[in-house]
Amino acid sequence: MALEILILAAGQGKRMRSRLPKVLHPLGGRPLLAHVIETARALGPVKIFVVHGHGAEQVREAFRSQNIEWVLQAEQRGTAHAVMQAMSRVSADADVLLLYGDVPLVRVATLKRLLQAAGDGLALLTADLDDPAAYGRVVRDGAGHVKRVVETRDATPEERTIREINAGFYALSARRLAAWLKRIDNRNAQKEYYLTDLVGLAVGEGTPVTAVKAEAPSEVAGVNSKSELAQLERHYQKLVAEKLLESGVTLADPARIDVRGELVCGADVSIDVNCVFLGRVELGDDVRVGANCILRNVKVAAGTEVLPFCHLEDSAIGERCRLGPYARLRPGTELAEDVHIGNFVEVKASRLGAGAKANHLTYLGDTDVGARVNVGAGTITCNYDGVAKHRTVIEDDCFIGSDATLVAPVRIARGSYIGAGSTINEDTPPGQLTIARARQVSIPSWKPPVKKKG
Ligand code: UD1
Ligand code: CA
């Protein structure tokens, strides 16, 4: 039968103490809600409804490119009230899965079990927690059958000792859901319409209720505070690190890597401690990344070594390059193979040809550097005239002496040598030495300054 999934994401998340809607807080670099939507998609539903309310525009904007049925819950009056807002758009003959936007790590396999268990009745996802905290408790009768779910605030001291909690996810038919929603009221501690009442209503009617237990407590962990978010982030990073290790990546310490996006690694990649990967990062075979590097949206080809403390962003790096320590590649950098970028070198919107080297203290902005060029220490491309940016071209086999300033637009022709300390603002001829600096003079009559007494 056709599956339709509803994700509840309208709450403000008061306990987050933030202006950002709760479901947009990032876990592993992506909004909490993005994780839930991705999991939902994997189940192949006909439709995904997201009930949103708090920060509605911001939430919609964050998922603009996705095919989602948005349902507005202008006033948040409880989890059942949220579902009620969507019912007019849910197909009457659909199977329905209800998920929460703030419970991001539930697994596809677990939800498949939940859907299967529902049959013609109701299935709810539960878990045994050592610390059931503020979760709703699953109350069972003497024979072990699920009787109802009670919120912590409404629970008796005895019920509070129950360790089996309600994850808040349910599978059932749209037909049953619609019927039961009509009977849910808000007579409880929070004066809210509780979705948890579905359980009591099903039991009351004699409809089969099946509790499906999640394998790991983290699958049902909801994010309600910054503290819970931080804990879940650590857990998520641990899962990512384990996957990397399984695929053959060497991690100096799996507890000290942060992947906030997607990290794709070839064979025999090794990553030292405290590296952060953002967006989509691809590391080719045998790539080594030193300690304390930050890589955002970069592609690093096979055999390249990134030494410690590099910051690389929106760049493509060729094979067998050597970067750093302390190198910075800014957006639009393309390095061919065997390029060396050394300490305190910044490169922006520039291409460097095969075997080019800039090893020390240099700025290359809006520059095309040919093959085998050697850029001396302290070289600066002056790409900005206060109004516009201009390009510098350094053709193949040039040698740029230390401390040269190349004032763009300017072209250094093939095989040129530039004398150290030169300021070059005109194109140079190929294969010649060009020097542009004041001639050195010594003043024989010069006397060192004398300190005045008193
Ligand atoms: C809920 C359950 C509790 C369960 C827990 C699991 C109820 C009454 N309680 O409690 O049994 O153990 O989840 O995490 O269902 N939301 C809306 N509109 C609303 C209210 C909530 O869309 O009017 C959304 C929230 O954005 C959130 C989700 O529903 O994504 C859960 O709401 P929340 O207020 O966090 O419920 P809990 O108190 O955690
Ligand atoms: Ca919650």
Quick recap of the structure?
The protein is α/β, with parallel strands linked by helices. The chain contains eight helices and 35 strands. It has two domains: 3-220, Alpha-Beta Complex (Spore Coat Polysaccharide Biosynthesis Protein SpsA, Chain A), CATH 3.90.550; 226-434, Hexapeptide repeat proteins (UDP N-Acetylglucosamine Acyltransferase, domain 1, 3 Solenoid).
Written description of the protein model:
With 454 residues, the protein is an alpha/beta fold. The protein folds into two domains: 3-220, Spore Coat Polysaccharide Biosynthesis Protein SpsA, Chain A (Alpha-Beta Complex); 226-434, 3 Solenoid (UDP N-Acetylglucosamine Acyltransferase, domain 1), CATH 2.160.10.10. The chain contains eight helices and 35 strands. The protein has a 21-stranded parallel β-sheet that branches. The chain has a seven-stranded mixed β-sheet with strand order 5-4-1-6-10-7-11, with helices on both faces. The protein is elongated, with a radius of gyration of 31 Å. It starts with a strand and ends in a 20-residue tail after the last strand. The model has no long low-confidence stretch (mean pLDDT 97). The structure holds uridine-diphosphate-N-acetylglucosamine and calcium ion.
